[in-house]
């Protein structure tokens, strides 16, 4: 069936049917993931499929894992299996001695070549159709790197994509610098935050995925069952929007006192989710908001600092809710909680 338009779907259906026959349990909210459980229902392994690349994770000294692995290998004709180190979608994955995995895209990034440009052209000169096509391709290459392992590149990729229809020689120069930046570092990815409701959807999705991995299926037709599953795993919604935070946490006015009715409804929904699932909502000042590095090129430094510090960060809890500029003027480090609130002077 290779080469037919419907080949990918036929392959997917065949693979799914085969794993169902092998008694593997599919995750409802992430159909590409199956779990392997022992006789007591304990999670002992996972099978993850991406197109035609498969990863089997678990204790490979466990007899049940070894048996399932052999059954899967016999069900299809696979290329030789890789362990300890492999490449998935341009990402080199190495398993460490303590069983954690270290991803990197050094090789992938080194293969992204700059766009050749004739010398003597002014930065304001326009580009040819061929160069515009090359710009689009290079941005796609670097965008994949940003999505997989270098989130601090995301903002600049997005800005350059918007610039492509009116690109100039200056755009080519910017992409050259971006490609160089992509070749310098390889780290683990970080999620983006655009709006509170979208972020809440992502939090809930991951909470449900964790629940299904550890506990089994969720009755998605029952709202209470879904909320109960979500509440078993703590969730935290971090926002830099002070007005939105105070609206959800404090407002008792009609429509939460928001002039825009749609925004008011969204805030009400988040407040209800907080009450029903135990969601935590935190406000941080802009210099401590990691996700800004995904949409603001001037904020990428915080993401780099996060990765260089071993992916450790602090959810700053400033009792006075001071903005970043105010904290800086008072000599407070961006990751310090600040001066504790004095109950005798508090309003």
Blueprint of the fold:
Layout: H1 7-21, E1 25-26, E2 33-37, E3 43-50, E4 53-58, H2 63-75, E5 85-88, E6 91-95, E7 101-104, H3 106-110, H4 129-148, H5 154-163, H6 169-184, H7 196-215, H8 223-231, E8 236-239, H9 242-249, H10 261-277, E9 280-283, H11 300-308, H12 324-329
Helix pairs in contact: 4-5, 4-6, 5-6, 7-8, 9-10
Put the structure in a nutshell.
With 347 residues, the chain is of the alpha+beta class.
Describe the model.
The protein is 43% helix and 12% strand. The protein is built from 12 helices and 9 strands. It has helices at 7-21, 63-75, 106-110, 129-148, 154-163, 169-184, 196-215, 223-231, 242-249, 261-277, 300-308, 324-329, and strands spanning 25-26, 33-37, 43-50, 53-58, 85-88, 91-95, 101-104, 236-239, 280-283. A 4-stranded antiparallel β-sheet has the order 1-2-3-4. A 3-stranded antiparallel β-sheet has the order 5-6-7. The radius of gyration is 24 Å and the shape is globular. Residues 185-194 and 341-347 have low confidence and may be disordered.
């Amino acid at each position: 069936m290779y080469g037919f338009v419907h080949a990918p779907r036929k392959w997917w259906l065949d693979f799914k049917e085969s794993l169902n026959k092998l008694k593997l349990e599919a995750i409802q909210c992430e159909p590409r993931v199956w779990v392997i459980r022992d006789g007591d229902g304990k999670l002992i392994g996972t099978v993850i499929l991406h197109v035609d690349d498969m990863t089997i994770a678990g204790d490979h000294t466990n007899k049940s894992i070894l048996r399932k692995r052999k059954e899967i290998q016999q069900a299809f004709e696979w290329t030789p299996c890789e362990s300890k180190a492999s490449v998935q979608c341009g990402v080199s994955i190495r398993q460490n001695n303590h069983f954690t995995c270290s991803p990197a895209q050094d090789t992938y990034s080194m293969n992204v070549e700059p766009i050749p440009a004739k010398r003597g052209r002014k930065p304001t000169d326009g580009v040819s159709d061929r160069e515009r096509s090359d710009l689009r391709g290079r941005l796609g290459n670097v965008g994949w790197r940003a999505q997989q392992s270098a989130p601090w590149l995301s903002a600049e990729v997005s800005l350059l994509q918007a610039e492509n229809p009116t690109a100039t020689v200056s755009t080519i120069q910017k992409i050259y610098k971006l490609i160089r930046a992509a070749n310098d570092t390889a780290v683990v990815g970080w999620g983006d935050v655009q709006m509170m409701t979208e972020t809440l959807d992502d939090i809930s999705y991951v909470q449900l995925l964790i629940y299904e991995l550890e506990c089994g299926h969720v009755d998605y037709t029952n709202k209470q069952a879904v909320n109960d599953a979500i509440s078993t795993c703590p969730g935290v919604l971090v926002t830099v929007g002070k007005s939105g935070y105070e609206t959800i946490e404090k407002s008792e006015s009609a429509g939460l006192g928001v002039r825009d009715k749609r925004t008011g409804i969204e805030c009400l929904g988040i407040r209800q989710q907080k009450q029903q699932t135990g969601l935590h909502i935190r406000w941080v000042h802009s210099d401590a908001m990691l996700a800004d590095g995904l949409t603001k090129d001037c904020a990428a430094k915080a993401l780099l600092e996060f990765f260089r510090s071993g992916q450790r960060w602090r959810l700053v809890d400033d009792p006075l809710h001071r903005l970043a500029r105010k904290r800086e003027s008072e000599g407070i480090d961006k990751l310090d909680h600040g001066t504790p609130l004095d109950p005798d002077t508090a309003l």
